């Protein structure tokens, strides 16, 4: 009994299905046709000169600038930035660029064109390097670094090793016996002797003048004419 | 021949001084040197002369000490030594004064002896005469040097007699050479 009931229940459904299937197919077919026609219409519209003109006018209008200004002033920028960071867009982009053949080509091109050499020459000749070096040398950090280096054991050890080196003493001996050094020492000695002699000359000339003044005063004679400057060095 | 410094008018000298910043070469008034400076220079020369003589005397004496010489020879050697000392002293001054007017002492003090008229170095004969006059000036208790204190050109008796003056010397500048007479140049 139960099987008969099932048949009685399913039979209308089966009949309905069979009867309605062509209609459903027709409806689907019609939908596809409408969709295709719509897309074709859109393509025609987008490819038309009018659409291009519309886009140009919209982009040239104040509306776009206003919208852009509002968007940049609003929270959109921060939101976009957060999304960019959240989805690691920059990392992925960089990785893609670096691992791709484009980067190799760019590097090859840069090296082949001598860009590196020009950049190095520009840096060396420009004032920037001096500025940076000057700032680095004058900085307190550099002073601290030098002070630490001097206070470190490294310097003591370096000096000790240098002093143990026989070549150093050979070098010192060579320098000490070099004509430049001996000349400098001789000149310094001569300079000192000259200073002493200059002092003696000045004092003797003062004594000359004093003695003559005294002698002329004693004999009531007029003072001697002023002598010209002595031609001392 | 009168000194060039006397020939050039005072006005020309002033103009030269203004234009060149210093007086024309050869026209500037020399810096005559006084008694103290000259005495120091002479003392240095005396020290040089005596040190050399002492060194030579010691060397000769040591060399002779190993020889047993008769007393007559020793006396003769002393006499020879005295003559050599005298010649050395005379030669020292005559050579230096006639060369460029500068003895070592003069050079130290930057002074030189020169002809009073043209500023050139002395001839050997005049140098010798000056040395003789200098000795004479020293004999009356150095009174011959007193005119240095009063004379406008700071000349002592020996300077006046020998026609010389003592002036400042620029060490970087060589002494003026004695000008030749036209006849001498032609010869």
Q: Would you kindly provide a written description of the structure presented here, covering whatever features stand out?
A:
The complex is a heterodimer of chains A (233) and B (187). Chain A has 233 residues and is mainly α. Chain A has helices at 2-47, 49-60, 62-73, 76-86, 89-99, 101-112, 115-125, 127-138, 140-151, 153-164, 166-176, 179-218. Among the domains of chain A are: 1-60; 184-233. Helix content of chain A is 87%, strand content 0%. Chain A starts with a helix and ends in a 15-residue tail after the last helix. The two termini of chain B are 21 Å apart. Chain B has one domain (31-170). Chain B has 187 residues and is mainly alpha-helical. In chain B, helix 4 (71-99) packs across helix 6 (124-138). The A-B interface holds A 197, 200-201, 204-205, 207-209, 211-212, 215-216, 219, 221, 224-225, 227-233 and B 28-37, 40, 108-110, 146, 149-150, 152, 168-173.
Question: Main β-sheet of chain A: number of strands, strand sense, barrel status?
Answer: none
**Total DSSP helices of chain A:** 12
- What is the terminal separation of chain A in angstroms? 148 Å
What is the H/E order of chain A? HHHHHHHHHHHH
For the sheet with most strands of chain B, the description reads: 2 strands, antiparallel
Estimate the global geometry of chain A from the Cα principal axes.
elongated
Q: Any low-confidence stretches of chain A, pLDDT <50, length ≥5?
A: none
What is the radius of gyration of chain B computed over CA atoms, rounded to a whole number of angstroms?
Answer: 21 Å
Derived from helix and strand composition plus strand pairing, the structural class of chain B reads mainly alpha
**Helix-residue proportion of chain B:** 55-70%
Number of helices of chain B: 9
Which chain pair has the greatest contact?
A-B, 23 and 24 residues
- The whole-number mean of residue pLDDT values of chain A reads 85
Fraction in helix of chain A: over 70%
Strand proportion of chain B: 5-15%
Mean pLDDT across the residues of chain B is 84
Give the CA-based shape of chain B: elongated
Decide which structural class fits the backbone of chain A.
Answer: mainly alpha
How many strands of chain B? 2
**Domains of chain B, number:** 1
